[in-house]
Each structure stands twice: as structure tokens, then as C-alpha cells.
Write a structure and sequence with these properties.
This protein has 143 residues and is mainly β. It contains one helix and twelve strands; from the N terminus they run ββββββββββββα. Bound molecules: thymidine-5'-diphosphate (TYD).
């Protein structure tokens, strides 16, 4: 698989006060964030996603619960488990993704490199495979 990575999020721990985790754009994550969104109240075993992005770069993390993320670059599929507030997954452009809620009340947070644009989505798997075969992705920007 090309270049997706699990990132360890820096965390401040205090025995009495708890934990504080943080990351910064263009330092810990190789792009600027323009949009944050989060997905919650999702029943256990639900799968979401089923799309790829043409240009959008994202970082995914699960501050509470456990979420399985399948990434597919058109050749290879790989599964990542987000089961700790200290783990984040970098998902560059050009990856088909499917996310499965493994525990009740799990929350998926996403920081994205651009504003919402439905034209950036590929929601048809055959179309995605066509794109990946032509190598249309602009993913020069390796982390
Ligand atoms: P979508 O990205 O398809 O979510 P998932 O792949 O997890 O099912 O988004 C679901 C709907 O929400 C879709 O109709 C578009 C809308 N949406 C926005 O309007 N703005 C956003 O920033 C996002 C992420 C989604």
C-alpha cells in the first residue's frame, strides 16, 4: 500500500487531571486543515464510507470507542483499528474507505484539507478502480 500511516498523537498525561492529546497542521500532519467533522450516534456494526476522494486529504481519529477503517488503494486493502484517543490515521487522496463501528457510542473525528465538495467524492467502486488504474491521483505529497 502507498502512504497511509497510523500516527501516535502527542499526549499530556496527569495522574489527577487526566489526558490531553493534540496535533498541529503542517507539523504532525502534512497538510492544512480547513474543516473538522465528527460522526456519532452510530449503531454498533454499522459500516459507513464507501467512497474515495480525488484530492482531499484527511486525518481520522477516534477519541472514544473503537472503529475499524478499511483502506483500499485499488490493488491492496489494509485494515486499521482506531481504538485509542492517542491514535490517528492519515488518509491521503485516492483511497476507498469503509469504516465499521466496533463499539456502541464510538466517535469518529476527521480533520480535512478542504471544504466539503461533493464533486471530490467517488462513490462508485468501479469508477474508483478506473481512476486508480489510470493513476489519476495527485498524491505526490508523501508524508
Ligand atoms: P459522507 O461523507 O457520505 O459520510 P459517510 O461516508 O460517513 O457516510 O457524508 C454524509 C452526508 O453528509 C453527505 O450527504 C454529505 C454531508 N456532508 C456535508 O454536508 N458536509 C461535510 O463536511 C461532510 C463530511 C458530509
Amino acid at each position: 500500500m502507498k502512504s497511509n500511516f497510523l500516527i501516535s498523537i502527542s499526549t499530556h498525561s496527569n495522574d489527577k487531571l487526566g489526558e490531553l492529546s493534540f496535533f498541529e497542521s503542517n507539523k504532525d500532519i502534512p497538510f492544512d486543515f480547513k474543516r473538522i467533522y465528527y460522526i456519532y450516534n452510530v449503531p454498533k456494526e454499522t459500516k459507513r464510507g464507501y467512497h474515495a476522494h480525488k484530492k482531499l486529504k484527511q486525518v481520522l481519529w477516534c477519541p472514544y470507542g473503537s472503529i475499524e477503517v478499511l483502506l483500499d488503494d485499488g490493488n491492496e486493502k489494509k485494515i486499521y483499528i482506531l481504538d485509542s484517543p492517542e491514535k490517528a490515521l492519515l488518509v491521503l487522496e485516492g483511497y476507498w474507505r469503509e469504516m465499521k463501528w466496533q463499539k456502541k457510542d464510538s466517535v469518529l473525528c476527521v480533520a480535512a484539507s478542504d471544504f466539503y465538495d461533493e464533486n471530490d467524492y467517488i462513490r462508485d467502486y468501479d469508477e474508483f478502480i478506473g481512476y486508480s488504474k489510470r493513476g489519476d491521483w495527485n498524491n505526490e505529497n508523501k508524508f
